[in-house]
Prior knowledge:
Chain A is α+β, with helices and mostly antiparallel strands.
Amino acid sequence: MANNPRKQQSRGAKSALSPWRQQAESYLNHHRKVARDSAQRLWKSPVASMMTWTVMGVALALPVALMLLLASLEGVSAGWESSARVTAYLNDSVTIEEAQALKAEVADDSRVAEVELIDRDTALEEFRASSGLEDALDYLEGNPLPHTLLVTPSESSRTADGVDMLLTVIEGLDGVERVQVDLGWLQRLNAMTDLLGRAVWALALLLAAAVVLVIGNTVRLAIENRRDEILVAKLVGGTDAFVRRPFLYTGAWFGLGGGVVAWVLLQLSLWWLSGPVERLAGLYRSEFSLNGLSFDGALALIIAAMLLGWLGAWVAVKRHLDDIEPGEIAGG
Amino acid sequence: MIEFRQVTKRYDSDHTALRQVNFGLERGELAFLTGHSGAGKSTLLKLIMVMERPSAGEVIVGGQVLNTLPRRQVPYIRRHIGVVFQNHQLLFDRTVFDNVAMPLEVMGTPARDIGRRVRAALDKVGLLSKEKMNPLQLSGGEQQRVGIARAVVNKPPVLLADEPTGNLDPELSADIMRLFTEFSQVGVTVLIATHDIALINDLGRRTLTLDHGRLVAGVAGGRHG
C-alpha cells in the first residue's frame, strides 16, 4: 500500500513506517482474513447461498454438458473417418484384365493405402451369400454386377477434403462408372456438430453473462446490507481496494460453490444417462460413449466459475460501491 | 496543522455554506467551532475530511493542499484525521475491540500491533474491560467513548468532533472534554463543533464562530504561517 502522503506529514503521527516485509505480511494476512470472513458470511445464510450456487450451477452445467456431448460425437465421426473407403464401380464393358490395370494405376497414387479388386463373380457370390436372395438371383440371365475397386485412402488423406479429392481423381479414370463413398452421412454429422458447436458457444456466452448478472445482483444486495461498514471504512481511510476486497471474495466464493454444484450436476446426469447410452450404442454397434469431465476439465470449470463470480462482483462493486461516500454522515 | 485560506463553499447558485473563511489551527491547539444550525459547521468539517471540496480558496491540512488532491489519495489523508460523531457511527455487528481496530486494519497494521494499540486506546477512554462486548450493550456515554477510542487509535495528528456531547449529561460531557484536552496536550490538533455554550465557556478556549457561512469570531489566536 502506498505510503507517500504519510511520509509527507507524519509530524504528528508517531507511528513509524513498518518495513515493507511486515507490510506485505499484514497485507497477505488481511487477504486471508477477508477471504475467510466472506466465506463465513456465505456459510451463515446457507439457504440463500445454496440458491445462488444452484442457479450458477445449472447455468454452468448446461453448456458444459452440451460441450461434452459434442466432444463425444466428434469422437464418433473421427472413428468413422479413419475407416472411410471409396468404392469405385467399373463399366460393364471393362474386362478383368483392364480392371487389374486400373487397380495398379490407382494403387500407384500416393494418397492411396490399399486397393482391393472384387471381380464380378466374387461379388455375385458374396451377394448371394449375404442377401438371402439366392432363388431370385437364379432367375437372372447373367451377372448384373460390375467389377469393383475398394480403395482405402492413406492416413494423411483420411479427412473429408482428402477423401473428396481422391474421389474426383478416381471418378476421372477411364472405365470408372460411378464412385461411392459412405461419407455423406458423416459430412452431415460433421456439419451438424459444427453448427451445434457454435450454438453451444453462443449459449455458453449468454449463460455466462447471466451468471455475471446474478452474482452482480447478489453482491449488490450484500453491499446494501453492509452500507454502514463501508461508510465507516471509507471514513477512517480505507482505500477503494480495501472496501472492495470482501465483495470480490464473496463473488469468487459464489463462483466456487456454483462450479462445484455444476460439477455435481454433470456427474449425476452422466451417471443417470450412462446405462441407456450404452444400450443405444450397443444397438448401433457403436463405440460411442458419453465422456465425463476429466480432472483438468473439472478444475477449469471451477476456476472459470470463480472468475465469473469475481467478474460479477466487480461489476456490482464498480456500480454501487463508489456511490457510497461518507458525505451524508456528518450532521449538525 | 489546519489552515483555511479564503475558503468559499457554494452548493447551488443560491446556497453558499461558507464565505471566504480564513483561520489556522496550530499543532496541539484545541478550538471550538460554533454557530447556529446551518451556519456551515459541518461543511467546514467535511472540507477538512475531503468529503467536500471548496468552491474557492485553499484548505491545507498537515502542509498538504487538499483542493487538488487526487481522489485516490483521499483515504491516506483521512488516516491522519480522527473523527468523532454525535451518533458515533459504531458498527453493531462486531465487538468494541473490532470497532476500534478498524482504522488500524485499513492501514494494514500487523495483528500484534493492532491488539496492543486498540487496548491502549480503550484504556485511555476507560473501557478496557468492555472490549469483547457489543457496542449495543453500552450506554450512550460509553458508546461515545468507543467512538473516541476509534478516532485516536492510530494516533492521528488531527482530531475532529461533531457535537460529541450532544446526547450526554453534563458530567459525561465534562469527562469527554477532559479526554480531548489530554489529546491536545500531547500535540493533537483538536477541533470540536458544538452548540453547547456552557461547555465552551467552561474551558475558555479559542472559539471559531460561524454566522451564515462567515467566520465572525475566533479568526485571531491562531498564529498563521
